[in-house]
Amino acid sequence: MIEEIASGPAAIPAAKRGSSIGAQILALAWRAADFRIGLAVLAFLILASLLGPSVLGLSATKMDVANRFAPPIFLEGGTWKHILGTDQLGRDLLIRSLIGLRNALLIGTISTIGMFILGSTIGLVAGYFGKTVDLVLMRITDAQMAIPVIILAITILGVSRPNPVTIILVLVLAGWPAYARVVRSVTMSERRKEYVRASTILGASSIRVMLQQIAPNILPPVAFVALLDVARMMIFEAIFGFIGIGIQPPTPTFGTIIADGTKYLLNAWWITTIPGLLLALCLCSINLMGGALERARNTLLRGQ
Amino acid sequence: MFALNFLLRRIVQGIVIIGLVTLLIFTLLRVVPGDPVRIMLGPMVAPSVMEQVATELGLRDPIPVQFGRYMLQVMKGDLGHSFIRNAQGGSTGGSRGGETFDLQNRAKVSELIANTIPYSILLAALAILFTVLISFPLGFVAGVYSGKWPDRLSLYVSSVLVSLPNVWLGIVLILLLSAWGGILPAIGYNGPSYAILPALVLAIELAPVMIRSIAVSVANSLQENYVSVGEVRGIKRRRMITHHVLRNASIPLLNLFGIQVIGMLLGSLFVVEYIFNYPGVGLLMINAVFQRDFPIIQAIAMLSSAVLVCVNILVDLAATNIDRRLQY
Amino acid sequence: MQTNRSVLNVSQLSVDIEGRERRRILNEISFTLEADTVLGIIGQSGSGKTVLSRALVNWLRPPLRISGGSILFKGVDLATVNETAMQQLRGREIAYIGSDPANALDPTLPIGRQIAEKLMSVENDLARDAADRRVLQMLDAVRIPSSRQRFHEFPFQFSGGMMQRVMIVDALITNPAFLVADNITQPLDVTIAAQILRLLKELQRDFRTSTVFVSSALGVVAEIADRVIVLAHGEVVEQQGMHGLLDRPTHEYTRRLISEMPKIWGEEPLPTAVETPASETVLSVRDVSKTYSERDRNRFFVWNHIQAVRGVSFDVFRGENLGIIGESGCGKSTLSRLLGRVEAPDTGQIEFLGKDIAHMGRRQLLGLRKKFQLLLQDPFNAIPPHLTIGRTIAEPLYIQGGTSSVEVEKRVRATMIEVGLQEDLYDLLPVGLSAGQRQRVNIARAMVLDPELLILDETLSALDQVEQAKLIELFGDIQKRRGITYIYISHDLSLVRRVCNRIAVMYLGRVVELASNTDIFFNPQHPYTRALLSAVPAIEERRYLPETYLMEGEPPSPINIPAGCSFRSRCPLPIEICASVDPKLSATPSDGYAACHLITPIAQSTINS
Question: Cβ C63–A195 below 8 Å, yes or no?
Answer without folding.
Answer: no
